[in-house]
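Supplementary material to the annual report.
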Amino acid sequence: MSAERFDHEVTTTCGYCGVGCRLEAHAAGGRIVSISPALDGPANEGHTCLKGRFAHQFTRSRDRLTSPLIREGDGFRVASWAEAYARIASELTRIKQRYGPDAIAGLASSRATNEDCYAMARLMRAAIGTNNIDNCSRVCHSPTSYAMRRSFGLSGATGSFTDIDHCDVALLIGVNPTQGHPVVGARLKQAALRGCRLITIDPRRIELSDYAALHLAPRPGTNAAVVLGLCHVVARDGLIDSGFIAERTSGYAELETLLDAYSPAAVEEITGIPAADIERAAHLYGEADAASLLWGLGVTEHRYGSEVVQLLGNLALMTGNVGRDGAALLPLRGQNNVQGSSDMGALPDTYTAYRSVADESTAQRFEEAWGVPLSRRPGLRIPEMFDAAIAGELKAMYVFGEDIAQTDPDTAHVQAALENLEFFVCQEIFENETTRYADVILPASSFLEKTGTFINAERRFQVVEPAIDPPGGAKTDFEIITTISRMLGHDMGWATPWDALDEVARLTPHYAGVSRERLGRRGLQWPVSPDGVDSPTLYRTPFETADGLGHFAALPYKAPGDAPDDEFPLVLVTGRVLQHYNAGTMTRRTGNIELVDQDRLEIHPDDAARLWIGDGDTVSVRSRVGRTELRATVTDRIEPGHVFTSFHFPQTRTNLLIGQSSDINTACPEYKVVAVDVRPVSERPAFTPELVVA
Ligand SMILES: Nc1nc2c(c(=O)[nH]1)N[C@H]1C(S)=C(S)[C@@H](COP(=O)(O)OP(=O)(O)OC[C@H]3O[C@@H](n4cnc5c(=O)[nH]c(N)nc54)[C@H](O)[C@@H]3O)O[C@H]1N2
Ligand SMILES: Nc1nc2c(c(=O)[nH]1)N[C@H]1C(S)=C(S)[C@@H](COP(=O)(O)OP(=O)(O)OC[C@H]3O[C@@H](n4cnc5c(=O)[nH]c(N)nc54)[C@H](O)[C@@H]3O)O[C@H]1N2
Ligand code: SF4
Ligand SMILES: [Mo]
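Predicted assembly:
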């Protein structure tokens, strides 16, 4: 790119996934003309995927929201900011006075910055007076956060992406990095090429399975049995690190007793994985000098997702594969800033750095800083918000940057909840499925139009700089949230997002040394001590639990919440594809739409033949709670008995099919195991006589 072709250049951080690639964005005349990878980006080292590099055309899409909209009858009319703000302030004040602060709830966006999310949490807690604040981590990696805090102490990856370069075995379970975290996916391919042995555990044969020493295909929802089987063999064959277990952990004896029941033969029964493959995988992992574990939603979005993460913790603890170079536990957190939105306390039960709202000294510290009394009662989680709205207890919601009507489970239930609210504010960059229910829609800014920080999946705070201005009358999320707070009588007192970041650092020992200057081009991985020293590897010694030990968890396998039967004989797994991102509001407005223009149902050739479904045919998919139609792709990457689809296109309405079953500890939906009935709806006859065989 020649210098003449752009007039403005910034180094910023990608706003799609949790890898956190550093990008050089070039703009001319207020438009992005090109984006290239920053060579010194610590997570990407000069790489990006097609989203970070090319998926920026959405910024100037004609569909961008450019002025506030207020409901009028069945539609919306353009309004001034003054009118929109006044309406929001008066409605929220009325509802608070009439029904109390807990009748109002807010959702923070994991697409937005730490400063936006921290401001939103402060708005709900201090300006409204409720802990009803949550973010999309609820439907994603909340089980990881829960489990890692119990096993090790802190809610984050124990190491960094560079550990992938230093391990001799990487075990991937329920994660598909070449699609979801492509730059990490490429790093894993590189690792495989230099001799690192990959093990992939996924009901589908993912791209990295082609590079793996071993691929295991469990029945969906049986991860616990797989991991207990691996631990069984590791213990039985003396592959444990006894010194590590004795010095640094507690609870091993109880686990050892439990493991008796999980012989490879018993595990084969439950999971369908051949016993010999369990043996091989356990030996590969257990005999490695340094083994890393990576997981994703194939672990968490299940009824016992949080327990499986604790079981993965067992595997690492019993082999001493934690707290060393190359021996990392790397949950691939999804959204660009889902680590951050949670770290910032946009959760119903915690302030920054996961300190409980019920903890007296923490609450007092925030009361002092914010000058208002704060509730000690944990607020509602997202699914509880919907239940409360349907019950008539929750009256108003303020949602920014989350398309709950498309992405949350059981769409009909979500719609009923949103329809039942007295007042609903959406702050968005596009109209989407959720804004249909809004009373006021506020036009906000994307990551290329704002200032602040994101935290990636390796706990790294990184700077975000605007490359262009927000379109038309749109404003930054930070400006909107802080203005609404001021109108509600609580002035946060910040001129810029950097003032908010300084406040976070001041009030949070784990982030004490974080500042704009110190973050520089490479960012800092929390905890960051007051003198600015950061932490690429956690737990070199000791753990951050109350007793400083790593905690084993003796948790047996339990069957998933849903199971196939005669009426619903197939298991639907849902997930994502490379070219589109979640609700798809952004990627559907880029050239990626030419690559993939619909959600497809992947089905094994045997099932397809049995059901008389051809590649490209339209099929009906029915679950216990809903029905939809989409086109089929016949592929042997999926096992017989399972089908797969994504949720990127609103017309598919994938989430009509998902029920209310969720993780027992965190309420993360069981998106990954849904019993369904699939049949063709094409004009083709159900059978042709010449093909009927007795
Ligand atoms: N291109 C793209 N990238 C994205 C996103 C996107 O929408 N598009 N979204 C981002 C977000 S928010 C997130 S959270 C991440 C998610 O990234 P991943 O965690 O990789 O998410 P998924 O593709 O949903 O699921 C991962 C795998 O789990 C497998 N799986 C399902 N059930 C089971 C099971 O019972 N056991 C095992 N072992 N595996 C199972 C699925 O077959 C799938 O291959 O991606 C992020 N990156
Ligand atoms: N069936 C099924 N459903 C799933 C999943 C699954 O695997 N299967 N995965 C779940 C997971 S892991 C997640 S994380 C959720 C994600 O679900 P969502 O968080 O709802 O999805 P996104 O598309 O990431 O973004 C939400 C909205 O934010 C807007 N937006 C983007 N940037 C900004 C910004 O800076 N400011 C503002 N104000 N708005 C912005 C976008 O236009 C979009 O409408 O989906 C979940 N849904
Ligand atoms: S890998 Fe993730 S962070 Fe990197 S460019 Fe792609 S979407 Fe952005
Ligand atoms: Mo996610």
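DSSP finds 23 helices and 28 strands in the chain.
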